[in-house]
Amino acid sequence: LFCFLSEVNFISCQSLPMFVILAFCWVYIRKFQSRQESEVVSTITAICALAIALITSALLPVDIFLVSFMKHPNGTYKEWAANNETRGQIEDTVLYGYYTLYSIILFCVFLWIPFVYFYYEERDDDNVNKCSVRINVMDFTSLLLQNYCFIVFRAFVPLEAPPGQNSTQWEKVQYLFEELGSSHGLPALSFSISTLTLIGMLAVITYTAYGMSVLPLNLIKGTRSVAYERLENTEDIDDVEHQIEKLKTKCKDGRPLSSRDRNNLQELEGKLQVLQRRGRHLEIAERNCCTKVGSALRPFKILLGIFFILVALLFTVALFISNLDKALHSAGISSGFIVFGTNLTNPLNELLLALQPVFPLDYILITVITMYFVVTSMAGIRNMGIWFFWIRLYKIRPKKTRPQALLFLCMILLLIVLHTSYMIYSLAPQYVMYGSQKYLMPSAGPTSGNATFGTTRICDADAPEDQCTVTRSYLFLHKFWFFSTIYYFGNWAFIVAFLIGLVVSCCRGKKSVIEGEVEADDSDLSDDEYVH
Questions:
Q1: How many whole angstroms separate alpha carbon 165 and alpha carbon 337?
Q2: 339 φ, ψ (degrees, to nearest 5)
Q3: What is the structure's pLDDT at 530?
Q4: Which stretches of the chain drop beneath a pLDDT of 70?
Q5: Pfam families, from UniProt (predicted)?
């Protein structure tokens, strides 16, 4: 938006945020990536997928800004937007942006990420040669590729047969390409995207809801004292060594240990190795400058955590009021619980409307809200790990995360971004639908010459159709009523999941300063990156 409004070179200005996004994605992936199992293709794939997720999340604020930028504060269209054809071109540009990025997400979810994932899984098998790896990867991805091709062809193949059954093959191909440029396939493409959005809804309920509670509470509670942890770890080491020595005394006279004692001795020796690694990590953390800086910034973290929890509660209240409004004033399940306008006072929607006169506070706030969902989703995945129902597949740990886990993380974020637009629409329905647009309601009194007098009103569902432009995002969200119905019940599930996550996060104690760095299944070689 700054590039659009400023007088600096537009192309040069555009390259700056892209560079910032790629730099952030590279730092984030490298922070969690395992140094022992890092691989170029999976790293590039994860960075690109994460960048696509962040870029796609920025579409909604841009969409709202463009429809709002067409009009003056008094409700009249600006000169360059007075023509319907010009407005249509801008709307089509945004629409094509949605279709392009959403199609890239489809490609990533169905083909690119699964292919890299299966390739890395097969390559880990030492008994399989390279030729067999490629064959097995193609076999594994064939099903997903078939699904992807089905969606693409279902989206773009003409819904009606070409006129004239005796037409030549060239005429049929020409007719197919003509239909590609028409809108016949757009509802089908929207249907395929909405189907993926349902999966994103499940990810939002699981990860985003938990991240909204665990992120601020972790900031408020902080971490345990390094000195206290070292003292506690030293006591545990002494206790385990004493138990090992006690077991070894049983075989001093030459008698062999029983199978039970051997198992206990093996478990105690493994536990001792873990405790010794913890001691080395705690010693490094105590000398680390980041730990000292984090202690100095403790008051700032507490304030930031309080701010985040207040924002999370505001979102929950706004979502509850929006769902209650739909339950009371919509036509029910058959209409997808769609409500035109707001009948109950929604605090977040009112806040965005109140910030409209002070440009560009409302656009900054909607951008912050979008980024907040992305950040809390990443925090939820970071703390929970990757789950398939009740089975934990991978953990997300600093410098210890496997490439497959990072690929899963980026795929989940891509799906979450698809559902983010509906979540924000539920939080502020009127603003997401019309932005900061206003329209001029002509007065019933006499007019003076060619001048028209009237009152300026904020665009809502009662506004004339030619006076207010609906965002492309809103049209995307309400193409199919049954998806809207599922999203409605998903919002209730999100509220319940957030409250449960809030209770769980409150009951948990402080995290260790080396949380996730030491696990029982780690090798001693994994400590080299911390020592050096």
A1: 43
A2: -120, 125
A3: 46
A4: 1-17, 121-189, 252-254, 336, 340-341, 442-454, 516, 519-532
A5: LMBR1
| Interatomic CA distance for residues 162 and 297, integer angstroms | 68
Q: Which of 419, 436, 438, 434 is nearest to 471 (CA)?
A: 434
Q: What is the pLDDT of residues 207-228, one digit of tens each?
A: 999 999 998 998 888 888 888 8
Q: Is 286 exposed, middle or buried (0-12, 13-18, 19+ CB in 10 A)?
A: middle
Per-residue pLDDT at 422: 82
Output the pTM of the full model. Answer: 0.79
Residue 441: helix, strand or coil by DSSP? strand
Distances (CA, A) of 459 to 319, 323, 358: 21, 21, 17
- Which residues, including other chains, have CB under 8 Å from residue 184's CB and lie 6 or more apart? 158, 159, 160
Which residues, 6+ apart, have CB-to-CB distance to 182 below 8 Å?
Answer: none
435 CB contacts (<8 Å, ≥6 apart)? Answer: 64, 65, 67, 68, 459, 471
The string of DSSP codes covering 342-410 is -SS--HHHHHHHHTTTSTTHHHHHHHHHHHHHHHHHHHHHHHH-EEETTEEEE---TTTB-HHHHHHHH
Asked if residue 210 lies in contact with residue 497, where contact means CB atoms within 8 angstroms, the answer is yes
Other residues' Cβ atoms within 10 Å of the Cβ of residue 318:
20
- Cα dihedral 363→366→368→370 (10° resolution): -140
pLDDT of residue 497: 93
Three-state DSSP state, 162: coil
Sign of the C-alpha dihedral, residues 154, 432, 488, 485? Answer: negative
Which one, of 371, 46, 379, 370, lies nearest residue 207 by Cα? Answer: 379
Look at strands 391-394 and 386-388 and give their pairing.
antiparallel
